[in-house]
Structures are given as C-alpha cells and as structure tokens.
Amino acid sequence: MRPELIHDVRIIDTTLRDGSHAMAHQFTETQVRDTVRALDQAGVEVIEVTHGDGLGGSSFNYGFSHTDEMVLIAAAREEARNAKIAVLLVPGIGTVEDLKRARDAGADMVRVATHCTEADVSPQHFAAARELGMETAGFLMMAHKTSPENLAKQARIMVDAGCQAPYVTDSAGALLMDDGRARFEALVAEVGDEAWVGYHGHQNMSFGVANSVIGYEVGVRYIDGSLCALGAGSGNSPTEVLAAVFDRLGIETGVDVSGLLDAAEEVVRPYLPRWPKMDRNAIVQGWAGVYSSFLLHAERAGERYKVPAHEILRRCGELGYVGGQEDMIIDVAIQLAAEREKGHG
Amino acid sequence: MSGTFGFRPTARATMLVDMSAQVTAAIVGPGNIGTDLLAKLQRSKVIDVRHMVGVVESDGLARAREAGVEASAGGVDWLLRQDPLPQLVFEATSAKAHQANAPRYAEAGIQAVDLTPAHLGPMVCPPVNLRDHLAAPNVSMITCGGQATIPMVHAVSRVTPVPYAEIIASIASRSAGPGTRANIDEFTHITGRAVAEVGGAAKGKAIIVLNPVEPPMIMRDTVFCMIGPDADHGGIVRSVHEMVAQVQEYVPGYTLRADPQFDEPRQDWGGNARVALFLEIKGNGDYLPEYAGNLDIMTAAAAQVGELMARAKLEARA
Predict the structure, then answer these.
(1) In chain B, which ranges are continuous DSSP H helix?
(2) B window 18-37, beta carbon within 8 A of A
(3) Which residue, A231, B44, B72, B281, has most beta carbons within 10 Å?
C-alpha cells in the first residue's frame, strides 16, 4: 500500500547519501546535524543519510567512511523534527542485518537499489523492511540500460515484494527527455495506484530538473534532489532548484524555497570540497552511460596509473560495468596503462 | 615451482596408491551444477560415479544415463537402498534438502561434499585447508566467491598479517540462479566469514555484483588485503603466483589480470598499506558456459575435494 501524499510532490533530499560520493564519504557528524536541521526547517519531507554506496558501503572498494553511518543516521534522527530519515541499501553490499541496525539507529524508510534488470535480488530486503515497519522505495539503477517495458516489469517485481515507490534511477545522468518520459509513463501505467513512481536524476547532461518536471507531468510523485547538487558525477538535481521550479509551476512541495536557498548557500556550500560540475569527465559519464559514482575513483586511478580519467570512464561504459564494480576501474586503468606502454614501446 | 609454502594437496604420494582401485560416488541433484560436476568427476582416475539422484524425472537424469551412470528420480531413499552404498556423495540440491539429507548420509557412513548453502560441515578450500578436513563426514564448499578468493587471501596472510580482507565478486547475471538471487545476503555473510576464518584475515568482507552485459562477462574477482607498511612485497608476489598455479591445477582458467598492485600506507587505512589482486575465472566449459566461472569453480573445487578424499581413502586401504 502506498502512503498518502501530503503535497503534490514528495521531495526526497539525498545530499547526505548521494553527496557522500562527492565528499569521498568523509561526512562528519556536525555536517550531518547542520544539514538535517536546515532541511527539516525548510520542510523537506524525507532526508536520506547513508554511505554513498548504501548501508555497509564503507570499504576499500567504495571508500571508508570518516564517521560510522549508524552514528550519522542516529544524529540525523535526533535533529529532524518532522522529516523522515531514509537509508539506501544495495543488495550484494548491504544486508538485512545492516538494515536492522539502521532501524535501531532511527531510520524510518529504506530505498533498496538494484541494477535495472536485477530487481529479483531485492524481495528479501523489502520483506525485512516491511516487517521492521519501515517505509520503502526501490531504485532501478542505470535505468537507461533497459527498455521502458522491461523497466516496468522490474518495477512490478519490487512492488510485489513490498516496495511502495519504484524509481526510475538515472545513475549515469544519461536519460534524455524522451527517454525519461517513456520510462516514467511505463512505470506509472504498471504500478497504477499500488505505488508511487519516483525519479532520481543526475546532472551529467543537465537534465535532472527538466526530467523532474516531465516526470511530474506524467505522474511521478517522489522526486530526488541534493543541495548544491552534491552527489556523484556532476551531482544530482539541486533540491533548491527543484523547489524554486515547482513553486513557479504552482506545484505544492511543502518546501520553503528561501529556506532551502539559505541551506544550500550557508550550510552545504562551506563544506563542499568542490562544486559538482559538468566537466569533461562527468559529461563523458552521461554521454557514455557510466555509473556516476565512478567519477572520483576514475580520477584517482587515472592519477595513480597515469592515464586520463575520461578514457577510463569511456572504457567502463564500453565494457558495460554496473554500479558496484568500482574495482574494475583500477583494472581498466592498469590495462590502459599497459596499452599505452605497448603503443610507445 | 615447488611447495615453498608447505602443503601441496595433490601430493606426489599418490604414486603409492593402487590406481586400479576406485572410490564409489553419487551425485544428488541433477541440475546444471550436478551435470557439470559429473563431467569433471568422470575424468577422475580414483572416483567412480555410480549414481545420479533426483526427485523427479528430468533432463539431468537423462543426461546422466547417456553418460553411463545409473540415474533415478527416487531421491535419497532410493540411493540409500543401493548395495553397495557409495562412499562419497556430492550434494548439489538446496540448503533445505541438504539439511534433511546430511544426517542420513552420516548414519550410512557416506562422506558428503556439500555444494549447497547449508554449510553444516567445516568450510573447505582445497589448496588452503582441506588437509585438516579430509576425513570430515561432511564438508561445505562455501560459495563461488569464496572458492575464487580465499586462496588469494591465504597466499597473502601466510606471508604477512592481514588485519582486513575484502573481496568483490562480479558475475554474469545469467549465471546467478533463483536461489542465489533470493538469498543474496547469505553470499555476503558466508563469504565474508570464510575470507577471515579460512583465508586467514582478522576480519573479512564480501561484496557481490550481478552484471547483465551481453555477451556475458566472465567471472571477475578482486581481492583487497590490508597489510602492514613494511610487509614483504616480494614474498607476497611469490606466494600469490604459487597459489595461482595451485588453483590452476583444478581450475585451468583461473588467472591474474595483472601483477599484485601495492598501494602506499594511508591514514584512513589506519596507517596500513594495501595489496590488490585482480582475478578472472573462466570456466572449463564442461557443461556450463565458459563465462560462468563462478559455477565452474564450485564444481571444480568440489571435484578436487572428492579427488583428494578418494585418494586418502585408497591410501588408508593400501
């Protein structure tokens, strides 16, 4: 059963989860408290707080967390007076055990994320979430990688397993407007009034906000954003822009635009290591359809093995690597370095 | 290369064994895994697979009959009525089925090699710890990711202390069956535990990723081991190459994509350094497709366990 909507659209802010990628997972408890307080005061309904790769993501492969995510979740729960706290769980990385600990730390909602064709790894996690009394959503990641029809079938698997809101998750920021629309329509038609449909955008080709508006027009009701776009690749649809745009369109989000602008400018901007931007590497990600979280890893591997990061990213796209395969970035860098050596030798 | 690092399970001591003698075996579970395992066991000089057992008539049973093995849909009840009973049984059914069957094998004195996720007996990886469990009534083959990566963790941990090891297994979507998909947490738990307990790391973590790319990707595994800032790099490299050669004895398509990669100590690693190993596991293509290295390494490791158990039985008899 999908929950009642309080406003026309439910804005879900993921500064403290997708933004974790851009922060190389170095969020401090103070940053989390300050950000949650500001988002909560501005009226954001749901705030996601987790390692960028979801529960249990702290690792060699994705980067170790500066502060244990359970500490951050508990701190967020303490600060939020009205907002719900969500966590991300990627089956294969995080487990039901991690979810129980997050629940104990105060998480109200879980978003279970799978590659867009692999939804059948998620039912055990949805079942556990429902048993724990948590709200649920489901991420079908790299949604550009499969057809709208097939994406709808995968959404059905999630909904049947207890997912209240399957998402068109544009992990690579690769969906052009028609690609987005076709997928939104397919999911809305498939789930009917059993669940809401969500959209999670990345700005690699600058379509995050535009696709959010198109999504709303065809029935998408959960929309993700991050303050200052803080997120993987060139970041997410900026929450403050979403709020301003929906306000102009007369679509009720319950969010105070000025409050969010202040939050972005005064709380998040001071701790940004760099403002996510559409540079060569990030555009290549959208263009070649590469998982946005690969960005910093490719830059690091590029430096270590003396090969351009955008070449690494393009090769990752050609080889069809999916979210979670960050280890392959090093492998690709080694292979590219070997090819260069050969070419020059 | 000789066994600088000790035990070599396919010990040349087998020269002493009467090669005309064979140990009898049965496979329970005539699916893809059971069929592939049969192909491998039929190449063994010391194992004679007499029975293939299912619970319903199936293509798998028909394939076994074509291969000259007596096959029945009569389940374990039928198997336990055979005279003589097999000495070894390979279980390729489900965790639930093996939980039910295991006590019956034990009672009948049949040694069981368990390829299911039941994990009742000690977890074994042939070149790492099988010698400790050759006579165990029941052994667990852990998981595909475990069989692929534990030899590497061990290769590092026998040279230098490993406070933490992490493995990432990437497999082709087509090679992940419904059982794996419905219980993916089981993979991460069991493999992470085995990386520590069997591989010799103080702490272990496992990650699995399914990739649907077409044509299907060959199984890939990455092993990250935390090591001290002064660890013996040369020793690690030698140990790793030696272990790769040992695994290749039963999985010919087990290769390192690159030399071990050493990363400098970092503050966020607690001042530790890291070695990264990148593996590709191409299956033998016996019955399963080559890309399904994850399934192949399970059947190949199980066949290797059977081989060594059988030799131990024959040596005991000699």
Answers:
(1) 32-41, 59-66, 75-80, 95-107, 126-129, 144-157, 178-182, 184-197, 233-248, 293-317
(2) none
(3) A231
